[in-house]
Each structure stands twice: as structure tokens, then as C-alpha cells.
Amino acid sequence: MATTLLFNKPFDVLCQFTDDQQRQCLADFIDTPGVYAAGRLDRDSEGLLVLTDDGVLNQKITHPKGKMSKTYWVQVEGAPEAADLQPLIDGMELKDGLCLPVRWAFGRQPHDTIDVWPRQPPIRQRKNIPTTWLTLTLKEGRNRQVRRMCAGLGFPVLRLIRYRVGSWTIDGIAPGEFAPV
Questions:
Q1: For this structure, is 42 an active site residue?
Q2: Residues 42, 44, 54, 171: which is the catalytic one?
Q3: Which domain holds residue 27?
Q4: Which tens digits make up the pLDDT trace of 134-151?
Q5: 13: domain CATH number?
């Protein structure tokens, strides 16, 4: 029987089980043998990471042809308006090609009732520049794609939390904790 875990990855944790530089990694939180991350989150990103020993499931989550959607809560610097975010819907051009269209909404929808935990260290905030939360839903996962898209629109990412992969979410899973599926 396959093992699948949902892990709420904290900020500054690597998505691998070992690190020769002694940085925090998955082994500091998960001791289940044989599971591997299905996809990645950058060290400076937080949220849902699916770990499994099921190769078919891993392929479904990570392969571009699977197009399993993923939802991110993104705190950006500035106050974008709907017109500023239109390129996300149209399909934005990045250095590695045209991105598939992205669904977006203002706020951390659809689950604004979930409190976002404090990040350590806190994000940098400038006194005279507002920040805005967005919800972005993608069907691809290029390297640092959300960060590159937002920066390309002129709204750098201050905090990025993956809320959902397919039908799985981080609901009820505290940062640094995991739950079996």
C-alpha cells in the first residue's frame, strides 16, 4: 500500500532529506522511510508539499502533461489592480516561454478564514508601500514561476504559501507538521 503525506513546509526548509551544509531539510520533520517530495517548494516558500512512495502519483503531480492545479497565496509588494494582473489570465511570457493562463483573485480565497501563521523571520515591509495578498491557481510549475510572473508585473513577492495541490490542502496542518492521506 502506498504512503502519501501532506507536509506544511516552513520557511527556510529545503525540499530534500539531506544537506551537506547542515541547513534544515525534510529529515528534520519527517521520519517516514521511502517517501519523496512530489514537486518542490523553494527554500523561501512555504506551504503544502506532497510526499509519496507512489511513483505514478509522483508523476501525476509533477509532470506538465498531468496539469494538476496548484493554488498559492502570494503576498506582493504594492497594490495591483485587476488591469495589472490581466497578463496572468492571458498567458504571460517569461524567459523560458509562454506560461499557461493563471486564475487569480484578491485575498487568500476561497479560505480567508484560515489564519496565516507568522513567518520567522518576518517579511520586510516598507512604511510607505502597501502589500497585497493574491490567490493564484496554476496548472504548471516552472522554477520560481510565481515569483518571476509577479516580478514581471512589477509586484515582487514578499511571501509565497502553497495552499493546495489537486484536491489536497494545508487545512488543519500546522507549519512543520504532516498528515497522512
A1: yes
A2: 42
A3: 4-180
A4: 999 999 888 899 999 999
A5: 3.30.2350.10
